[in-house]
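cron nightly-structures :: item 1 of 1
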Amino acid sequence: MDQENSVMNAVSNNMPWSLPRRAPGCRLLPAMFILLMVSGCATTYPVNPPLTHIDPDTAYTFQNVVEQSDKGSDVLVMLAFSGGGTRAAAFSYGVLKELSETNMDREGFSNRLSDEVDVITSVSGGSFTAAYFGLYGDRIFEDYEQVFLRRNVQGELTSQVLNPFNWARLLSPYYTRADMATELYDETIFNHADFSDLVDAHGPYVVINATEMTLGVRFQFTQNYASIICSDLSKLPVARAVTASSAVPVLFSPITLVNRAGECGW
């Protein structure tokens, strides 16, 4: 260090001007250049799979989920879970827990009201609870608080955004903060489940709602809606739909679905 200082002093003493100090931002240019180069090779989130044909026995429709399940009675129970972040998720969870502790006695038949739920329509924070209950049923009363409600999910997302190893992907036009949130939900909450798992779970028919940003109209994650854009919903991760339903504008970019309308003969 002393040798370096003596050289700099000698140079400035022999010249009528001093060498300018390197601007701090210049040191970041090589790193930013490397990140931009790497972002071109960054992993992108897979798009919604195309629909080649519709299998009426496996498609995510009301008929396959509700009419093929045996609830044990002819009572139709439908729930609507609103949005509002974690507070909405907690409120809807409380509703399900109360229903699980309430029995329905009718014509010699007794069952919990939570077992009679046929349809749940949800948006935003309520979609987390609806999807989890649709996939795992009573398991929600055992681990949902630890898996989601009492976790600092926002803090985990912030940590991932601030992680330099993720900067290359975030600089890519094909990977966004919403994609990062989807990956986190997929791995830590929904265990990589897709909509075919919702059919196999024989739980309620969960209708996850989102908004189409261009026209401002509703988009439901059901096969009836997915068929319009020729997409096979059975292979779409449930976490992807939940992210689209709960992604707050500005904080998260919109979820992109590829529109292949007219390519599947629907």
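cron nightly-structures :: done
The beta strands are 77-81, 103-106, 109-112, 117-123, 205-212, 217-220.
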